[in-house]
């Protein structure tokens, strides 16, 4: 078996990369929790939103487009005056007044850029390439008449066309959120875009050093054979573990484009009928959408989970075409549980106003840090053995959660699975806790694992009613002292 070199990377249990055997444990997908409404949008066609954190100016940027593409009972007329908007925030929770990034004036100035006169398909990103010019720190891929084009900006508020870079020489369906970023593992940019694969909406990746020379055109490969139509991809490196690429594609379900009595199960029938009547497409009334989670270590092979990452849920505001679309990007925000709780991840998802058909908004959704998938130990208990690996660092840090009754124990073994002296399960201080950075301890060495650095080891994990989200080897720090109880107390006999 190949020996993994974990070095000091944070490894998430989003796939079976670390796992040799897992018995009755399983990899369990977790969903974000809906919080407050972040923005009420002046559009009824919300999609292709994008959130970024500008580390230079210490602000969050949230992009969205306004316009009236989808007719409703209240507003049956189309409005082609699409605009790309941006609003900023210092905390990712409270947002300022929106301003125009691109509108029809820009369309008139650069008529070759936009398809159907709309800047709606613009996807900004922060260029982390060390060779990036300061005046091009923000870039954006935008749909053009013949392909895709590149825009640049110094501040993320106004963009201009890189006229020296022609339309991308790639085959693309374009009508999507076409994601690009600099991959530090490769030293190239990646671009993920929408194509047709055997008649189904699919995702293709290219790599490029300069957005002129495109290489390695490859359709994504998945760990399953399920049929899923992905309208978008939302693929980017996870900022806490950049070697992991994570995607949150919007999954498209059209119910066979058949209008029948199943429609009685769904909300907003009048709005669905208005959409069908205007565009003469049955699917505009029958389609619902949700969001899926998937991840990759090479950018080509993806582990995806068939269960929805974000379901429509019981609200009548979330069952239309384009609902539950998660804006590209995620940002760390203060916990909804108060100042004593660690930061969470925030996502922003599209919904519509159930009392005012035609009005759409973005709702903030929160997730535990690293909390996409966990290695879950059920109540009946389970044991997991990792693959053999080496590491760099002096202590182990865990993102772990148990119930008060649940527990997790760790035994360190050699490459053959034989327990190492001093690191057996009986030497371990059993974990009953919930923390993002818990340093497990053994009786003789406490959290100090410096003697094992560079050696090939495995972890044998035994738990019940527990979830392990991530692990990382970090520098050792002296452990906190446990206060000594001054008087000896006998365990209390509780009588009922």
Description:
By secondary structure, the chain is mainly β. The protein folds into 2 domains: 4-28 and 374-474, Sandwich (Jelly Rolls), CATH 2.60.120; 31-370, Glycosyl hydrolase domain, family 43 (Tachylectin-2, Chain A, 5 Propeller), CATH 2.115.10. Helices cover 4% and strands 41% of the residues. The protein contains 3 helices and 34 strands. Strands 2, 3, 4, 29, 30, 32, 33 and 34 form an 8-stranded antiparallel sheet that branches. The protein has a 5-stranded mixed sheet with strand order 18-25-24-21-20, with no helix packed on it. Strands 5-28-27-26 form a 4-stranded antiparallel sheet, with no helix packed on it. β16 (200-208) and β17 form a beta hairpin. The longest helix is centred in the middle third of the chain and has 11 residues, at 269-279.
Give the integer mean of the pLDDT values: 90
Q: CATH architecture of the largest domain, please?
A: 5 Propeller
Number of helices in the DSSP assignment:
3
Percent range of helical residues? under 10%
Low-pLDDT segments: none
- How many domains make up the coordinates? 2
- The CATH superfamily of the largest domain turns out to be Glycosyl hydrolase domain, family 43
Strand content: 35-45%
Largest sheet: 8 strands, antiparallel
CATH fold description of the largest domain: Tachylectin-2, Chain A
* CATH class categorisation of the largest domain: Mainly Beta
| Helical/strand content category | mainly beta
| Total E-strand runs | 34
Shape: globular
Assembly form of the protein: single chain
Based on CA atoms alone, the radius of gyration comes out at 25 Å
Terminal Cα span: 54 Å
């Amino acid at each position: 078996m190949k020996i993994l070199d974990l070095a000091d990377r944070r490894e998430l249990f989003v796939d079976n990369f670390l796992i040799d055997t897992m018995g009755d444990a399983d990899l369990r997908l977790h969903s974000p929790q809906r919080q407050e409404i972040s923005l009420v949008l002046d559009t009824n066609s919300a999609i292709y939103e994008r959130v970024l954190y500008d580390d230079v100016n210490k602000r969050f940027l949230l992009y969205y487009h306004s316009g009236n593409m989808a007719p409703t009972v209240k507003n049956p007329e189309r409005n082609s005056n699409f605009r790309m908007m941006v609003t900023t925030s210092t905390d990712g929770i409270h947002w300022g007044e929106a301003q125009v990034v691109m509108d029809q004036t820009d369309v008139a100035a650069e008529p070759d850029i936009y398809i159907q006169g709309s800047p709606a398909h613009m996807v900004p990103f922060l260029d982390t390439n060390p060779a990036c010019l300061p005046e091009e720190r923000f870039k954006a891929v935008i749909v053009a008449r013949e392909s895709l084009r590149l825009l640049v900006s110094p501040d993320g508020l106004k963009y201009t066309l890189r006229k020296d870079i022609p339309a991308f020489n790639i085959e693309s369906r374009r009508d999507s959120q076409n994601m690009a970023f600099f991959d530090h593992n490769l030293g190239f940019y990646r671009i993920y875009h929408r194509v047709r694969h055997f008649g189904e909406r699919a995702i293709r990746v290219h790599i490029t050093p300069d957005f002129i020379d495109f290489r390695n055109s490859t359709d994504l490969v998945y760990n399953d054979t399920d049929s899923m139509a992905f309208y978008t991809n939302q693929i980017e490196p996870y900022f806490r573990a950049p070697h992991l690429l994570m995607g949150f594609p919007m999954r498209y379900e059209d119910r066979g484009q058949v209008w029948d009595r199943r429609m009685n199960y769904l909300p907003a029938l009048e709005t669905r009928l208005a959409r069908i009547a205007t565009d003469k497409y049955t699917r505009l009334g029958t389609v619902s959408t949700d969001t899926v989670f998937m991840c990759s270590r090479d950018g080509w092979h993806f582990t995806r989970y068939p269960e929805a990452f974000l379901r429509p849920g019981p609200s009548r505001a979330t069952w239309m075409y384009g609902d539950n679309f998660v804006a590209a990007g995620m940002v760390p925000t203060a916990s909804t549980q108060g100042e004593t709780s660690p930061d969470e991840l925030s996502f922003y998802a599209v919904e519509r106003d159930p009392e005012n058909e035609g009005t759409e908004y973005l709702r903030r959704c929160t997730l535990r840090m690293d909390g996409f998938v966990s290695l879950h130990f059920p109540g009946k208990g389970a044991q997991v053995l990792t693959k053999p690996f080496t590491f760099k660092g002096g202590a182990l840090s865990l993102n772990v959660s148990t119930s008060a009754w649940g527990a997790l124990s760790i035994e360190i073994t050699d490459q053959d699975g034989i327990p190492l002296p001093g690191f057996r399960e009986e030497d371990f201080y059993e974990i009953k806790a919930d923390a993002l950075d818990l340093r497990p301890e053994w009786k003789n060495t406490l959290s100090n694992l410096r003697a094992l650095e560079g050696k090939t080891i495995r972890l044998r994990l035994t738990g019940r009613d527990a979830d392990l989200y991530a692990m990382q080897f970090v520098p050792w720090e002296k452990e906190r002292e446990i206060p000594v109880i001054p008087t000896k107390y006998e365990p209390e006999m509780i009588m009922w």
